Every structure is written in C-alpha cells, then in structure tokens.
Amino acid sequence: QRAQCSNPSGLIGDSSQCDYETVGKLNLDFSSKLHEIVNMPFFRYFKVNLYKECPFWNNAGLCMNEDCSVETMDRSKVPEQWRTKHLAKVSISSNPLFGAMPVRPPVKEQDFCIPDSNVDEVYVDLRANPERFTGYSGPSAAMVWKAIYEENCFDVSQEMTAGCQYCDSERARLKENHVGHSEDHEESNILVPPEPAPMKHSNPTKKEMDEIFSKVPKDKMELNRLVQGIAKDGGGEESCLEKRVYYRLISGLHTSISIHICDEWFNQTTGEWGPNLDCFISRVGMHPERLENIYFDYAVVLRAVSKISDFLAGYEYLTGDDSVDRNIIASVTELVNLVKESPPTFEEELLFHASQGPKGRQLKNQFRDHFRNVTRIMDCVGCEKCRLWGKVQTQGLGTALKILFSYDNASLQGHKAVNILSRSEIVTLINTFNRFSESISAIERFGIMYKEELEKE
Ligand code: FAD
C-alpha cells in the first residue's frame, strides 16, 4: 500500500508538510530503484576537478591515507557524447562575504552551484570510490564544516525578512581574517582553525539509547515541538524561514555524510568494514534535530525530482548503444512514476515569499550566492574521496535548489524543459537522492541493531 501524507499541517516543517514516517515509507519504494539506477554507467561516471586550490584559505596537509585517495578512469571508456567541452573564461562574481573574486563560467543566473573548470578534470567511477570512513578529521575537516555553516548569513533586514539579518559581526570578523583567494596566500592571513570537536566515544546508557530511538521517527509530538523551534545546533526560533531552510539543508547533508561514515566504518581491530552503532549514536542518534534534517533534505530532493520528472523521463541518455539507452529510460521512467504517485513533500513557493518584489529577489539571490560558495568550499576539503563526494552531494543539492527556485512548474512541463540540466547536474541530483535514501535506510538498520543490543543485555 502506498504511503500517504497523513498530516498535511506538516511535521517536518519549514515548507514541508510531510511527516517523518511518510518519508520513511516512501523510501521503501524508492531505494531499490535508485540503487539500480546509480549502478548504470550513465550515473556512475562523473567528471570532476579534484585538484583545484582552496580559494578561501591555505590548505596545508592533505589526508594521505590510502582510503582518502580516488581511483580515476580512463577517459576512453567514457562515451564521446558525454565528454562535453566548454571554454573556461574568467568572470567576476560579487560575493557578499569575500568581495569580488574570479569564477569560471558558465554560471547561469539560475545556477546554485559554481561548476568545475575543465582544467585538470578527471572522470571517476563513483561506484569504484564509495563514500565511507576515510579517517579524515581534525582541524581541516572542522574548518570546512565551520565555513559551510557560516555561509548562513543574509543581509536583507526589512520587515518581510525579519530575523534574516544575522551575523554581521561574525562576517566582519571573517573578512578581517580572510585570505581572499588563492593569489593572496603569501599574505598569510589565514583563518585560525577551530579546535576539532572531540568524538564522544563513551557508550550511552540504556536510558539514553531508549530516548534516542524512541524519538525517531515515532514520537511525533516531540518531533513537532523540535521542528517548530528548529535545531539546537543552530538556526534559532527567531530566524526567518529561508535561514532555517538553509541551515537544515546543510545540517541534513552533514548528517548524511556522518551516517555513511558510521555505516561503512573501518574496524582497525578486525580489519573489516561494517556499521558502527556507537559512531552512529554519538554523531547522529543523540541529536534528534540532526536526524530530522536528513529527512528534511530527502523531502526537498524528492520534491525537486518530482518537479523535473518529465524532463528526466524524456532525456536522451545517449550511451552509444540503443538497448542500453532503452534500459536507462525504462528504469528512470519507473522511478519518476513512483515519484509522481507520492504526496507533495515540499512547498518551495512558500520561500522568498516576496520574490515578485525586489526584497524577495534579493534574499533569493543571496541564498543562491551563499550556496554557490558552499560548492566552492568543497575545494578546501583535505581528502580526495571526501572532496569527491562532497562535490557530488553539494552539486546535487544545488541542482535540486535550482529546479525548485529558478523555475516554475509550467516552465518544466513537457518539452519546455529541454537543456535545463546538464549531464553532470542529472548525475549529481540522482546520486544525492540515492545517498540520502541510503541514509534513511541506514537509520532503520541502526534502529534494529540498537534493539538487538538491548535484547542482549
Ligand atoms: P564533525 O562531523 O566534523 O562535526 C563538527 C561539528 O559540527 C560537531 O562537533 C558538531 O558541533 C557539529 N555537527 C555535527 N553534525 C552536525 C549536524 N548534522 N548538524 C549540525 N551540526 C553538526 N570523513 C570520512 O571518514 N569520510 C568521508 O567521506 C568524509 N566526507 C567529508 C566531506 C566533507 C564535505 C567534510 C567537510 C568532511 C568529510 N569527512 C569525511 C570528515 C567528517 O565529516 C568529520 O569531519 C570527521 O569525521 C570528524 O568528525 P567529528 O565527530 O569531529 O565532527
């Protein structure tokens, strides 16, 4: 039986009227289909630049662990049609945090990501380089997360966006310390990395574990209360919808990455890969709002895939082999049919409410520019494999935001959507959807593991 949105008043909140259980049920339908699709070469082969310098600070010390490295592909294995070429030119983007800096086109008005330049680009088989525990941690990783969360600053302070004026002093401080871009490195004006947060290794008590799993996702009252107040880690009750949405998107992505690390953990004692329940509990399970935010991300990406479904079903996948093309179209069509049957999971039109007016547009542009910065911050990740998956998932989320906020429904229907997304955007959108789907499935599995642990006691 298909899942229904049982409570249209919305438990996930912040423009999503679905409840957490609905997302969990929907994921049972989608997960195997997504798994099948991301194993097809069209969705596995990803073009990426892993060697760009960090544009924001000196990135000394790359992770040298074997598990941090990425295996690249022989270009000749990638069908000619997918190897698109565009000339890299330099243009200037105005960035409210860091001032004017060079970026590489083509960056269109509608884009929420800065595309990679094609200098030094490589092809990577995503399945041959799974996202999992690499050991990357410490000041470098903490610095990247900090920079990403600090992009949650919006200037518009008029009545319609009350609460969006935020962190001016923080921004001024950053600007003072900021290196600018790579050419400025010799000025050695480097942001001081924050102290890394200590991992909580101690095992929670039975009572604590009971609390963790009783809240996810069964205790609706509690979840509702939490999403009204949003995020003890950040956000804040006074903040505007757009700022909360930004925060939840980032926090949800962070949760998803943490879940994959814990789900595919390397046990140094046994030398085996496998799930680590303590890791999950300490990084995610003990923080209900972090769990909620991955459900939020799922709801947002699902809505984006639903909005672009005609385009995905009608896209020419062009593998060079007609029978392979037909298989891809058949699988994608099955996925989009499932997506179309699902209840609405996110109402994008509630954001940037005054988007017809200059203030709403200004806020939307700021939101977009800040998210673009997040995609650039990925070049500061000091571990190749983490950088690869960071790029896939920030670009996938950025593509979802582009679909939701740069186009209305009418402009995406039927043939009107031709050329709206590049191959890279389709690949990252679907792989990100799959990663979020795997996170939701992993939460269910960790719940079972937890119960089994309890029974042993
Ligand atoms: P971190 O995860 O580094 O978190 C830092 C702080 O952020 C925490 O102390 C907490 O205050 C806050 N926080 C944590 N989670 C949330 C949340 N969901 N919402 C809000 N606030 C939160 N490591 C790997 O092993 N494999 C990978 O593939 C990998 N990919 C990465 C990709 C990126 C883009 C980045 C920046 C890092 C990646 N890492 C990866 C490193 C990993 O994310 C952690 O930084 C590292 O494991 C250290 O974890 P930690 O427990 O110190 O806390």
3D architecture notes:
With 457 residues, this protein is mainly α. The protein has helices spanning 20-38, 41-44, 139-149, 168-177, 206-214, 220-229, 241-263, 277-285, 288-307, 309-314, 322-341, 358-377, 384-406, 423-456; strands spanning 45-48, 91-93, 101-103, 122-125, 265-267, 272-274. It is built from 14 helices and six strands. The protein has a two-stranded antiparallel sheet with strand order 1-4. The longest helix is centred in the C-terminal third of the chain and has 34 residues, at 423-456. The chain is globular, with a radius of gyration of 21 Å. Residues 1-10, 85-103, 157-205 and 215-236 have low confidence and may be disordered.
Topology:
Blueprint: H1 20-38, H2 41-44, E1 45-48, E2 91-93, E3 101-103, E4 122-125, H3 139-149, H4 168-177, H5 206-214, H6 220-229, H7 241-263, E5 265-267, E6 272-274, H8 277-285, H9 288-307, H10 309-314, H11 322-341, H12 358-377, H13 384-406, H14 423-456
The chain binds flavin-adenine dinucleotide (FAD).
Main location: endoplasmic reticulum
GO molecular function: FAD binding; protein-disulfide reductase activity; thiol oxidase activity
Family: Belongs to the EROs family.
